[in-house]
């Protein structure tokens, strides 16, 4: 044992250094081939996958956020649009109502005017017809009854004054 | 401490059978460990794969602490194998010692200075190799005269002290652990049943502590190896 502790003693087994060198290299190669290679490859693949998944998740999240925002905007827009449509409909209904009512008003007014003037005209016609008839009739009656030589013009003025008196009484 | 070893002469070199057998046993144990843990490699790791990945992450972090810029990725495998091999070697002698006919055949291979020197040689060879590869042979040589010229002898000396401290630290720790364990064993046998009972907790405590030391020394050896490599790979 003492020989092993002192380098250069005749018992030193320098072959051991060579032996451990060779066996260590062989061990390293075997470990690399059977365990290190596959496992580190898988570890790299996993870290790559995790990075990829995280990137993908980020991407998806931002996409979803964008989509949600778009939807919200669309919803807001559609609400405003609906309000506008309702307002427009109300407005057009109002104007239509106004125009219909005013049309009806004017028509009614026209009808009334026409009826009034018709009535007035009819009365006037009737009045003048009756005046003439009454004048002629009374003239005839007078000429027959009185048979006095009465000028026709005098007679007519007499009757007219009479009738005027009559109409004044009637309108009263 | 009065172990006897068998020696074999081969191609003019002497081989210590106990050392070489122990190295082989350790290497096989390491290989069985990682082989068993890496059978089902999947994207969603199972228990075994988790353990293996935890170990890989651990040694990768050692490399990364020495070379934080990510240039040390090529040494990840080296650190991993080195750490596992030294760890298993350190524990081997605590649980499993084979003696036949007075000759030791299996023990902790790291309790022998030649084995630890062999491991240190590998580390330093790796560091010199990558330094030459990175700076070219001229650049590699000129690095010895940096940062100032008169430091050249100190830098040269440092190469030897690095080698000796790296190997003898590991050897000393593990060898001392085995010596103390053997001493406790002789105490246990010295006065019959009384000392046997008294020595038992001592042996247990020391064995537990040796497991701890073995883990620490494996970590230290790997860390220092990486530090030496990283120092060779940067210009001051």
From TrEMBL, chain B:
Keyword Isomerase on entry: no
PANTHER family tied to this protein: ATP SYNTHASE SUBUNIT A, CHLOROPLASTIC
Keywords attached to this entry: ATP synthesis, Cell membrane, CF(0), Hydrogen ion transport, Ion transport, Membrane, Transmembrane, Transmembrane helix, Transport
Organism name: Companilactobacillus huachuanensis
Keyword Oxidoreductase: no
Family: Belongs to the ATPase A chain family.
Membrane topology: Multi-pass membrane protein
Entry coiled-coil feature ranges: none
HAMAP family associated with the record: ATP_synth_a_bact
Known role: Key component of the proton channel; it plays a direct role in the translocation of protons across the membrane.
Location of the protein in the cell: Cell membrane; Membrane
Transmembrane segments: 20-37, 75-94, 114-132, 179-203, 209-229
Protein name as annotated: ATP synthase subunit a
InterPro entries found in the cross-reference section: ATP_syn_F0_a_bact/chloroplast (IPR045082), ATP_synth_F0_asu (IPR000568), ATP_synth_F0_asu_AS (IPR023011), F0_ATP_A_sf (IPR035908)
